[in-house]
Design goal:
By secondary structure, the protein is of the alpha/beta class. It has one domain: NADP-dependent oxidoreductase domain (TIM Barrel, Alpha-Beta Barrel), CATH 3.20.20.100. The protein contains 15 helices and ten strands. The strands form two sheets. Strands 3-4-5-6-7-8-9-10 form an eight-stranded parallel barrel, surrounded by five helices. β6, α5 and β7 form a beta-alpha-beta unit. α4 crosses α5 and α11 packs antiparallel against α14. The longest helix has 19 residues. It starts with a strand and ends in a 5-residue tail after the last helix. The model has no long low-confidence stretch (mean pLDDT 89).
Length: 344
């Protein structure tokens, strides 16, 4: 395993981390696996050197599952969870964190994150923007929770540039991570300046959905109508005409994978790992075989030429998307997509 330092903390984080939304949210991901299957995934990940596990109250029973699995292993991992409510005052944050600690069967978390900022994006489920008090509450709550010894480090998730700027310098010196959707098919945090801003402030990305909900694995055919899962249908990338354009990027990934004897998933993951701003790549795992494949992505030999080829295909795709999108939308009707600026 390879590691990167978490900001200036001196703490080393594995380049691959485990995301556990799939461990506990049957309404989104379908029938859950037996606890023993998740136990095997976590045990093998730890044995392979993975030391970061990410969860959230919003992930169904994920926290409870991890609480059972990590008995006797808590000191082997960095445990990250989130304040999933968009109420950031100390009393709410403290109450929510206490619930998470109880479910996780621990007395502290290593990284406590604000799950979502308030953000107003027409045509999506995001309906309100952050106000000055919200930013003040975020900082005051997180700093107090750290002073109380309940969290070691603080992070945010899904924060765009204006959200980060709204935090202010004192909070930015305190925040160590921004967990964002980041892949060859989702570069908004690059083109809108978030990546550069975070590098300047020494805030590392925890990259989630690095395979674009499996699209970059090469396991989907050219007809988006065959995609049945509602969670994917709500993803911009799985709606036409975006899907057909995305498949062209997948083809480039497949070509590179064939050239170096790797899988498309490994190529896509390795590209994310190689980004300067990324401290760790969150890999959502449901099956043990996928864990093994993803861990080996750390070692595949992508050359500068490969990285340039992938980057070019990625940005060509990104430039076809209107600015300001979020990855998931509540309404994927043709009319709403057109309102968002997505047209054939």
């Amino acid at each position: 395993m390879q590691y990167k330092e978490l900001a200036n903390t001196g703490v080393k984080v594995s380049k691959i981390a485990i995301g556990t939304w799939q461990f506990g949210h049957a309404a989104v991901w379908g029938e859950l696996s037996p606890l023993e299957e998740y136990q095997k995934i976590i045990d093998e990940a730890i044995d392979a050197g993975v030391n970061l596990i990410d969860t959230a109250k919003a992930y169904g029973t994920s926290e409870e599952v991890l609480g059972k699995i990590l008995k006797g292993k808590r000191d082997k991992v960095l445990l990250a969870t989130k304040l999933s409510r968009q109420e950031y005052d100390y009393n709410t944050a403290r109450s929510e964190l206490e619930g998470s600690l109880k479910r996780l069967q621990t007395d502290y978390v290593d990284l406590y994150q604000i799950h979502w900022p308030k953000i107003n994006i027409p045509g999506t489920w995001h309906k309100a923007d952050m106000e000055k008090k919200d930013y003040e509450d975020v900082f005051n709550s997180l700093i107090k929770l750290k002073q109380e010894g309940l969290i070691r480090f603080a992070g945010v998730c899904n924060f765009r540039l204006h959200n980060l700027e709204g935090l202010g310098e004192q909070a930015l010196d305190f925040i160590v991570t921004n967990q964002v959707p980041y892949s060859l098919l989702w570069r908004f945090y690059d083109v809108e300046g978030v990546s550069e801003f975070c590098k300047q402030k020494n805030i590392g990305f925890l990259a989630y959905s690095p395979l674009a909900q499996g699209l970059l694995s090469g396991n989907f055919d050219k007809d988006v109508k065959n995609v049945q899962e509602k969670i994917r249908q709500a993803n911009i990338l799985f709606n036409e005409p975006v899907y057909a354009r995305a498949i062209k990027v997948v083809k480039v990934v497949e070509d590179v994978a064939a050239e170096i004897g790797a899988t498309p998933s490994q190529v896509a993951l390795k590209w994310v790992m190689e980004r300067d701003v990324v401290v760790s790549v969150l890999s959502g795992i449901r099956k043990l075989k996928h864990l093994e494949e993803n861990i080996h992505a750390v070692d595949i030999p992508l050359t500068e030429e490969h990285l340039k080829k992938l980057d070019e295909a990625s940005l060509n795709f990104q430039n076809t998307l209107p600015q300001g999108l979020e990855l998931w939308i509540g309404d994927n009707s043709k009319e709403n997509l057109e309102k968002l600026g997505i047209k054939a």
